[in-house]
Amino acid sequence: MVLNDVCIAGTNIGTLECYCFRMNKRFSLVTRNLEEAAELLHTLSQDVRLRTLCILLEREVSVGGLAKEVGLSQPAMSQQLQRLRRSGLVELRRDGLMVYYRCNDPRARTLMFATATLFPAEE
Fold first, then answer.
1. Which of 72, 95, 100, 121 could make a disulfide contact with 77, Cβ separation 3.0–4.6 Å?
2. How many Å separate Cα 63 from the centre of its chain?
3. Which residues are CB-contacts of 85 (< 8 A; sequence separation ≥ 6)?
4. Which residues on adjacent β-strands are paired with residue 9?
5. How far apart are CA 67 and CA 20, in angstroms?
6. What torsion, rounded to 10 degrees, do the Cα atoms 36, 72, 99, 79 define?
7. pLDDT score for 21
């Protein structure tokens, strides 16, 4: 099957073989990792989570600060952060009553770079 510039063929049991014509490069995906990838992408399927991740890739921010920047109530922001935390994309640090979040996950940086490449800002 050819999708734009990628040919996909399941040649080995448990492996999905792909070839990217544009990059002239072959790559393989282990099918058991696809479930994990799908879950991670599902976590990022909400625009508020993408915006949150962009902010947290730049700096550590409190829940209240994030809520203000993203435009959510603090409880709603906490729910979004909990989802990102369960997926391992963000981690928290407590300082007394304050809770700060940051993102040090290399998957997040790679995914956000890919997203920016696929959907560049309009000039």
1. 72
2. 19
3. 91, 92, 101
4. 17
5. 40
6. -40
7. 63
Mutual angle of helices 63-70 and 47-58, in 10-degree steps:
130
Instruction: Please tell me the predicted confidence (pLDDT) of residue 2.
Output: 40
Question: At residue 50, what is the residue type?
Answer: L
In order along the chain (123 residues), what is the average pLDDT of each group of 10 residues? 46 61 67 79 92 95 96 96 94 94 91 86 74
Question: Residue 70 in contact with residue 55, Cβ under 8 Å?
Answer: yes
- State the Cα–Cα distance between residues 34 and 16, nearest whole angstrom: 10
Q: Where are the domains of the chain?
A: 2-37, 44-118
pLDDT at residue 57, as a whole number: 94
Query: Quick one: which of 80, 75, 74 has its CA closest to 53?
Result: 80
Query: What pLDDT sits at residue 49?
Result: 95
How would CATH label the architecture of 44-118? Answer: Orthogonal Bundle (1.10)
